[in-house]
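Handoff note, outgoing to incoming analyst
You'll be picking up this chain. Sequence as last confirmed:
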Amino acid sequence: MSAIVGIYHLNKKKVSCEERTQMMDALSEYPADKTNIWHKDHIFMGCHAQHITEESISEILPFYDAERGLTITADAIIDNRDELFEYLAIEKRNQKEMSDSQLIMHAYCKWGEAALNYLIGDYAFVIWDERKQKLFGARDPSGYRTLYYYHSHTLFAFSTTIEPLLTLTGIKPELNEQWLAEYLAISGMIDTLDARMTPYLKIEQIPPFHLFTLDKSKIKLEKYGSFHPKERLKLRSNQEYIEAFQDVFHKAVNAKLRTFRGVGSQLSGGLDSGSVASFAARELREDSKSLHTFTYVPTSDFVDYTPSHLIPDERDLVKKTVNYVGGMQDCYYNFMGRNSYSEIDHYLDVMEMPYKFLENSFWLSGMFEQAHNLDLGVLLNGDRGNFTISWGSSTPYFAMLIKKFRWIHFQREFNQYCERTRSSRSRLMPFILKSGFPSLNQLFKKSSSATQSIINPNFATDTKIFSKLKDYRFNRSGWFATQNAYKQRKILFEDILPWNAGNTLDCKLSLRYRLWKRDPTNDLRVVRFCLSLPEDQYVQDGLDRALVRKATKQYLPDSIRLNQSTRGIQAADWIQRMIPVWPAFVNEAKQLCKETRLLEYIDGDTIASFVKHAEKGPSQEYARFEYSLLMRCLIVNRFLKKFN
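Most recent structure output, in case you need it:
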């Protein structure tokens, strides 16, 4: 794992010692096992390396191959090494010591830009092709590693983080108002629709699943692949689908265990993280190693206000998985004394931009800290499982069966589902009809949804943000215009690259705590496999999320594997945690109404209404979403002060 930087003077001006030093010094806040630079006349590359895999210990970055006229600097872990060794005809005696960056370079030599069609893993890299006088680089499909850049008619500079770019002469920290408009208008957890933008004008980033080439001062940026498979998978039996899933998931998990240090996994009481941890623990046990698990639990004084089907404290559920699987050293953390408000400055420093995951902020970084203290190299998670391995909500599936006139199949599955979950048929049917026939919503009482907007209407008009949302198939509330779950899933994987913000956090926390967070549920092979399956593999025999439930038999206890009645809820105590700092939170919120610059972007009347409610004191029963929006306003205001 590395932080990489580079400069290319397009006017052939030599890269100065001061420029090289400034960029490398900006990375000094991160721990490093090794730092190195390479420069030649008008081009410079640097690497701030952290050793995660055995191969990285002896890896030389940047690496210059004089014979081929190529230089590479990379932040990469490649998962399909054995497959690439075969494709590239790498001799057996050279495989063990070959670094991932050299493997990328070999792939580039054989396939050129098409090499990206063969790479699986997490990566951001840049190659200088001396003979062609061309820069070529890419970012992995989900954006697990970041790559920012600045481009003018005389200069191209790139970096894993934003700060090194701001050290260069002529690059001023100017606010990108279009980025801010998207951040404010989108009510959900997605920061922006355009993954190329950053909050800094003139500083952009390579979006996930994109490559760039810089040739004769012209930059070309294009998407190089797709999550969606080329064809649907058709097997002969349910058992064959189960075995195929187990095979691809096993490969994905095993590939992400590659480290010479310890391995950990975030673990809740559900299917996604449980599946990851179970597969990982089995593999590690064969090497006489344990899996360290990390579970967040509420504080001991937490007053549970949640409905009975939600479980804020998943400790007992996790224990069932741990005891059943074995080979795990389980730890439970409540991060007493930490809260979302007190974490703001820390996260603005880490992210280099405003963020939205404030409710979980205190334990997300806390997990990294604890994993770092145990000298772990990899921290597993199952963050994307809802859209991949555990896809399969019953409601949209039943609606689809009705719309396709598959009434006999619907009746059978619906009855089995109601029997398994002990649900009322008359209670479920309105939800099914609303899912499949949105025009019928007026016949049923609509559930409340978080649709309040905090963006200043004039700012929204000036930036034409709502027109852009419409173009991306979002409504004015900043969420999907379609209620069709299948269309939403397609948009998430095709259009808006939703993983960008969350994976930016993972990358930057990884650098800070010297470990790599990895998600087998979002492995490219796993995603394509899951998207290739017929929908009846996901809802079957009265089971929602049927495939993973069946595939984890012998891997998870039945009480976890077949649970369809309850689910965990993370950070349910985030408001209660803020009670000691509530007066400070409210006082700062009051000042927002006096911040002239902030009010250019945020609706002052909306802020005032939020503050009025907050002055009454924290309430778990109050609309928690409005507290979140008020916190977002605070975060944006503190960020704006960086530009003063």
